[in-house]
Amino acid sequence: MAAARSGKRVRLGEGLDDLVTRRSRANPEGLLQAKVSSAWREVAGEEIDRHTRGLGISRGELRVHVDSHAWAAQLAYMAEELKERLDSVLGEGSVRSIRFTVSRVVGDERVRAEREREAERRYGGERVEPVPLTAEERAAVEREVAGVKSDALREAAVRARVRDLEWKKGREAASGRLRPPEGS
Questions:
Q1: Which CATH number describes the domain made up of 26-109?
Q2: How crowded is residue 41: how many other Cβ atoms within 10 Å of its Cβ?
Q3: Do 50 and 117 form a contact (C-beta atoms < 8 A)?
Q4: Which of 50, 64, 150, 182 is surrounded by the fewest CB atoms within 10 Å?
Q5: For the whole model, what pTM was predicted?
Q6: Any idea where the domains of the chain sit in the sequence?
Q7: Average pLDDT, the chain
Q8: Partners of 56 in the beta sheet?
């Protein structure tokens, strides 16, 4: 039953049901694509999901972008099994076939995500207050980059190295491995 726009109050659930019903009549594959996208990780598993993106469906064919040729070949062998799993979640015949295509964008995205996970593992966690370098430590950093001819590049290298060392000292101080300098 359609919710009228006569200023009459309609329960949120009824309004959303009405909206979904109207949209699914206008674009039935759009609703199916949304259902497939939300079920994909459960159906495919975490490892496959990490290597796939961009699910699209047209005339019953599910298109899945994959990060490498090796994964595309492996998943092509698994296509029937994945289709059966989707059918068990979405209903029989929801997806007639699955096509896997290699996408460099997906590969680049996966590499970026892995780097972020590594950075989070390495640097993540609680906020660390940097501990300033001593004059001797600062002088050592400046000696490390003294051979860089460009003033701007040398200064940037000093700033980056100092910031990294101050963060590491802060992490050590937070873990109790570093005693704070006297007088602080």
A1: 3.30.300.180
A2: 13
A3: no
A4: 182
A5: 0.51
A6: 26-109, 126-184
A7: 81
A8: 63
